[in-house]
Amino acid sequence: MPKTTKAAEAARTTAKRTAGKTPEGGLKVERVFTTPGVHPYDEVEWESRDVVMTNWRDGSINFEQRGVEFPAFWSLNATQIVTSKYFRGAVGTPQRESSLKQVIDRVVQAYHAAGDKNGYFATAEDAQIFADELTWLLLHQYFSFNSPVWFNVGTAAPQQVSACFILSVDDTMESILDWYKEEGMIFKGGSGAGVNLSKIRASAELLSSGGNASGPISFMRGADASAGTIKSGGATRRAAKMVVLDVDHPDIEAFIDTKAREEDKIRALRDAGFDVDLGGEDMFSVQYQNANNSVRVSDVFMKAVEEGTDYALTARQTGAEIERRDAREVFRRMAQAAWECADPGIQYDDIINDWHTNPNTDRIYASNPCSEYMSLDDSSCNLASLNLMKFLGGDGSFDVDRFVKTVEFVITAMEISISFADFPTEKIGETTRDFRQLGIGYSNLGALLMTSGHAYDSEEGRALAAAITALMTGVSYRRSAEIAGAVGPYAGYAVNAEPHQRVMAKHAAAAEAVRTFGDVDATVLEAAKDEWTRGNAIGAVNGWRNAQASVLAPTGTISFMMDCDTTGIEPDLALVKHKKLVGGGSMEIVNQSVPGALTRLGYNDDDRQAIVDYIAEHGNVIGAPALREEHYSVFDCAMGDRSIAPMGHVLMMAAVQPFLSGAISKTVNLPESATVEDVEEVYYQGWKLGLKALAIYRDNCKVGQPLSAKKKEVEKAVEEAVEKAIETVAVHGPVRRKLPKKRPSQTISFSVGGAEGYMTSSSYPDDGLGEVFLKMSKQGSTLAGVMDALSVSISIALQYGVPLEKYVEKFTNMRFEPAGMTDDPDIRMASSLVDYIFRRLALDYLPYEERAALGILTTAERTAEVNGDDPAKVHEVDLDALRASAPIEEASVVDAVSERVQIESKKSRKDLLHSAQARSADAPLCMNCGTKMRPAGSCYACEGCGATSGCS
């Protein structure tokens, strides 16, 4: 740990001497990023762009606005998200916003006016400087407010600025029905809420009438149905909710099992032929799917797990002991359920409340749906996130001064918003105005660490993350104390002054305990220590304006708005990503973090280019030329051949948790091979390391259960049949079945990502594909030659009996350029030319059952599914024609190949169905545009249009 410098000591002495001395009448504001007399808009180049978004199901245009104005350095992706989500006014009317300038001005002017009106600034000039600086920071993507700010501020709508809500429910029918209503109104507005149901009597407890209580799980069922109805009533994302139950509740084991039992139901329905795909009509009979469940565990319980003892389940009204349970059995049950279906997560009650600044008002019982906001019941939190890459210097340094000033501006703006904000219920409004909870956080940590040459799972990476987080929250609370000197502390501070100061001291002590490894993290940490010393001294005199200051949210949509490579605290998802192109389509590029990392690690230009080219081709660094193996870990990602170990994620969370008012939205991914014991270890280490909450997801856990006995018998029969088919083919050898001179054929013109071409497919007279010709138009000799060679190889293989479905299985989803939008109404998006070609061939030559297993359907079939009709009747193909048309001498070989095809396709259909459902569970398709969503904390976000699965 670096020694404290004389300058740092002097700064601390000055801080103590000047504690509480704020400018009379309000805050003084200095220019940092702007130039006097020059508007921030005049410093950048602007350009006009067209935003056109299509419906992924049928290709129809579902959003179009042309001639929108954005800075030239903003990506097309960010342009599309902001235009479609945040521009206000009806499209096509004069009231519709058409420039980023209008959006930023609408928001900043509201903050400027409210700050000036409510006495936050010393002078009108200070207020104007604040507005200029805020405009500059938003324009240059240094930070972003959460989505409700962009939706509502400066419009005629209620000025809701919060994305996170916590509700309360008591053991009365009136309270439970209020919970339903309040939750529904929050869902209707596009936000989410969390609640702890532990006050509701258990199903074994008695009512005043003498009968048994319904128990919290029965009321969960009603709330889940309500959430599902509101979602299906027009929202484009699932209703986001969190349900928490204390581990000492008598119904805890039933609560633990709720979603795991429903997953059993899903598998049974699927095997019986019901539609349980994402959004399938039969999924409505599956319960508890609209909530994340978490068990709130105590230190008493966790120590009982450690020691192998039992603990008490207690009555809700009297607190009397009802029975005792083996702690390890309950803990194993939690891990087993999470292993099976990723629920429940875990929240550590005593840790949460030990860092609570307002315990004299009440305890913290619950969290928001993504688990980062933890505070009093009936409260809300507005969020904002910093783009960490904006503060990374070309030499690998971190710009502490600009970071500190940015945090000051952002915290000031967030605090001002509470003065004019509207809330969904009066209870939430009252609590939020009294405690003024804020949630500043950051995005792009993964990109920052990689660019700096640090592995995400390394002591160096964790030290830098901890230092940055400590600095962010330290500055936030110091600024909060200064604001308190100008406009007073939060209303609930007086009764909570002692515990608030105690928690501030805990944060400061945690900063002293961080070990650093280099100049960059040491410099950031020293600044953080100074901020905590200075801020706590000011707060001891002024109090603080805000009960909470920081959280780490998923930041899905706003990360894309800021053109971040990574979201929240997450590492890079993969080393290669897709970049949108003007006019449609996309191309794969290596993440920009990679070249920066190679530079920091000392590689020369030639080596850097060779490594980047290798990654572009292979998607990973294993075996990359010139790259030393000791540097492989720098490029480890959340997914891929070198994925970060589960404990790497847990340790990163533990490194930053002591410097957050709230918690961290993050899911710890485990491989499919992980055991129940592995889940137990993650949950146990989360407690030992001082986390507030933790959730896990085991790859393919949604569908990874053993097959039923009947299915096992079928599998055994299939294996035996395949072996028989292989033996038959081996005896007879492959036989080519040539097409006749005259054969039926069809020619299709196509366009994929702007690349045009023609495909002619010829079949046997009795209908069986036997030949394919591909011709590319104006695409150069190389691509044309490759497609010619592919045509010949496919045709010959088809005539030797290679089944078309094997080609479809192998070549669909293959990714390379050109890729993107097509002109085919049945295939709106293609990840490559061969992806399109084999999807088209599948639609033309494979029966519905084969294609449905592969996830390839026509527009008419998808429409039939949505309308509840039988899609199998839309398109039918007679597979018996192939056998009937075979020459006598080839019949046995064709029969054997046909048998193998049918049997193997059954296995592959099952495997593909399983993997497709697993992918849907892990990262669903966007309900807006059909793009595959990506993980963002505990949620998912769409890079195509910015939609999220429950977080703003």
Automatic annotation (TrEMBL):
UniProt keywords (A-Z) are:
Cobalamin, Cobalt, Disulfide bond, DNA synthesis, Nucleotide-binding, Oxidoreductase
Instruction: Locate the coiled-coil region(s) and give their ranges.
Output: none
Which reaction(s) does its UniProt entry say it catalyses? Answer: a 2'-deoxyribonucleoside 5'-diphosphate + [thioredoxin]-disulfide + H2O = a ribonucleoside 5'-diphosphate + [thioredoxin]-dithiol
The opening ranks of the lineage are: Bacteria, Bacillati, Actinomycetota, Actinomycetes, Glycomycetales
What is the documented function of this protein?
Catalyzes the reduction of ribonucleotides to deoxyribonucleotides. May function to provide a pool of deoxyribonucleotide precursors for DNA repair during oxygen limitation and/or for immediate growth after restoration of oxygen.
Q: Which Pfam family, any one of them, does this sequence belong to?
A: Ribonuc_red_2_N
Native species of this protein?
Glycomyces lechevalierae
UniProt name for this protein = Vitamin B12-dependent ribonucleotide reductase
Instruction: Please give the biological process terms from Gene Ontology that the record holds.
Output: DNA biosynthetic process
Tell me the GO molecular function terms: cobalamin binding; cobalt ion binding; nucleotide binding; ribonucleoside-diphosphate reductase activity, thioredoxin disulfide as acceptor
Q: Which cofactor does it need?
A: adenosylcob(III)alamin
